[in-house]
Amino acid sequence: MPDADLTSRIKKMMVESLMLKISPENIGDDTPLFTPEGLALDSIDALQLIVSIEKNFGVPTPSAEVARAAFVSVNTIAAYITAKKAR
In the structure, what pLDDT confidence band is assigned to residue 54 with cuts at 50, 70 and 90? Predict the structure, then answer.
């Protein structure tokens, strides 16, 4: 389970960098990012997310396959960052 501080930082970064019209507190840890039932982000948002994660957390995303697996929800992003930082 990712720590609450990290998930909070990710949500805040997402709202700011993607200019979401939702407060960070209203994003669930397991809310799908790219489905209509979730935040309905698009491919441009995905690119911005990749750049923001590298800038804010120092974690690069080397490929689209890695991004697809890591950017499912806030929890999966947090797990990805935690795993990369542990190396």
Answer: very high
4-86 CATH? 1.10.1200.10
Three-state SS letters, 1-69: CCCHHHHHHHHHHHHHHHCCCCCHHHCCCCCCCCCCCCCCCCHHHHHHHHHHHHHHHCCCCCCHHHHHH
Minimum mean pLDDT among 40-44, 56-60, 65-69, 82-86: which range?
82-86
User: Taking a C-beta distance cutoff of 8 angstroms, is the pair 52, 46 a contact?
Assistant: no
Asked if residue 20 lies in contact with residue 39, where contact means CB atoms within 8 angstroms, the answer is yes
Quick one: what percent of the chain has pLDDT higher than 70?
98
78 to each of 8, 10, 44, 72, how far by Cα in Å?
10, 7, 20, 10
62 Cβ contact list (under 8 Å, min separation 6): none
